[in-house]
Amino acid sequence: MGYNTDKARTTRRKADDDLMEDAEAVNLAADWADISQGLKKDLGHQLHSQWIKPIQVGGITKETGTLDLFLPTEFSANWVKDRFHDRLQLAWKIMRSDVRTVNIQVHPGRRQLPELRLDDGRRPANDGASAIAVAAGSINDSGFTSSVGLDPSLTFQAFITGEANVLACNAAQRMAATEQPQFSPLYLKAATGQGKTHLLHAIGHGFLASHPRARIFYCSAERFMVEFVQALKANQMIEFKARLRSFDLLLVDDIQFIIGKASAQEELLYTIDALLAEGKRLVFAADRAPQALDGVEPRLLSRLSMGLVADIQAADIELRKKVLVSKLARFAPLSVPEDVIDFLARTITRNVRELIGGLNKLIAYAQLTGQEVSLQLAEEQLTDILSANRRRITIDEIQRTVCQFYRIDRSEMSSKRRARAVVRPRQVAMYLSKVLTPRSYPEIGRKFGGRDHSTVIHAVRLIEDLRTRDADMDGDVRSLLRQLES
């Protein structure tokens, strides 16, 4: 009996420790989001995206107050250490009193890559600090397929689809299927945190499932350039080219960072031509369309856009809700009220990654403090994320958008006319004013020609009811919400 009690205590202690670690990781991630945003304003988009954005936050050594910051390559770690160490250290000290120093290094999980053999038996150069992540499908004695470099959690099954991303997801699944796709390359265009990297990894997993012996090349454009420069300096370009062109699927993320590197662009161009000529598959991802890539040779631009350019739009509110509900399955049987889900989906709109981070932070805080997840708790604990996302939508903006949508004159929002073609848009505008602004019913009534608050309440309840019964009305409101929140 005593042994079982001790074992139960140990298990509970371990669970508590794991929970504490998860919460600490969530808090560090939230702090890093604030610091990173500040550095972006100071350094500009280009420098921030190339050197600060790839930083991953490790843990804090409590005894020394040392915080580990990881970068994917020796080159990038040394570059950031030389130029930004003092600035990063100061920012973390200001943000957290328990941080006394920061340690910038290469991520320990990325120092070594498995040694790969080319088809003719030669070994490509690998100095132990290679930046290219390779997924090589290989069947061992147990029939297990290995996939080094691909995140196992980023699969098609875990990708939540909606109107904003269904085209890109379908195209990605075609690229991973057994049948040869009708287009190549596939170019995924999306802003930060909208799912383009997820789809890249999902394509890799799906391709390995349908082609178990396939060889996959996955990297970011910045890492591609680092490998290219290292091979050039080491006089190993022949091996580098042979290694690149031996793959069946090429996945390159953040292609915008290859801007201005003429020699690397030329090598990528030749690699694309060689792989396409052999019927290989290529997928690129970037935060802008090919035509918007400044400093890229016209020949390379034409190759990037010759297949299919699939745009991932910002997630609308319905997709954001679906994402939150899917993530909640991890925390079962924890209950999160519907109004909290609705609140998070409506207020954290910048990107899906930030939305998931907000949910994780809220749940971790609730579990650590023993509180129930509630709307009040969300408003109190997510102030930093909410303030960064909050774009103040005005009633004037709502009225203008609704009038343009229904093609009526702006004066009808305040007029006394009772024609259905005028009344219904006016009621929709009142409903949206209550949903999207903090204004009270009397304040909204005053903006609509001095109407009584009871008129506004009636309009809100009527549109809520119509949305459940009338598909056209629900579609109109969804479309207006997307316009106003974008």
Write the SSE topology.
Blueprint: H1 2-43, H2 45-52, E1 56-61, E2 66-71, H3 74-95, E3 101-106, E4 133-136, H4 166-176, E5 186-190, H5 196-210, E6 215-220, H6 221-233, H7 237-244, E7 249-253, H8 262-277, E8 281-286, H9 298-304, E9 308-312, H10 317-328, H11 338-347, H12 352-369, H13 375-381, H14 383-389, H15 395-406, H16 420-436, H17 441-447, H18 453-469, H19 471-485
Parallel strand pairs: 2-3, 5-8, 5-9, 6-7, 7-8
Antiparallel strand pairs: 1-2, 4-6
Helix pairs in contact: 1-2, 1-12, 4-5, 10-11, 10-12, 15-16, 16-18, 17-18, 18-19
Question: Could you characterize what this model shows?
Answer:
This protein has a 6-stranded mixed β-sheet with strand order 4-6-7-8-5-9, sandwiched between helices. A 3-stranded mixed β-sheet has the order 1-2-3. The chain is built from 19 helices and 9 strands. It is globular. 54% of the residues lie in helices and 10% in strands. The chain has 4 domains: 1-112, GMP Synthetase, Chain A, domain 3 (2-Layer Sandwich); 130-312, 3-Layer(aba) Sandwich (Rossmann fold); 315-390, Helicase, Ruva Protein, domain 3 (Orthogonal Bundle); 395-485, DnaA protein, C-terminal DNA-binding domain (Chromosomal Replication Initiator Protein Dnaa, Chain: A, Orthogonal Bundle). Strand 2, helix 3 and strand 3 (101-106) form a beta-alpha-beta unit. Helix 4 (166-176) packs parallel to helix 5 and helix 18 crosses helix 19. With 486 residues, the protein is of the alpha/beta class. The longest helix is centred in the first third of the chain and has 42 residues, at 2-43. Residues 367-486 are annotated as: Domain IV, binds dsDNA. One of its GO terms (cellular component) is cytoplasm. It is found in: Cytoplasm.
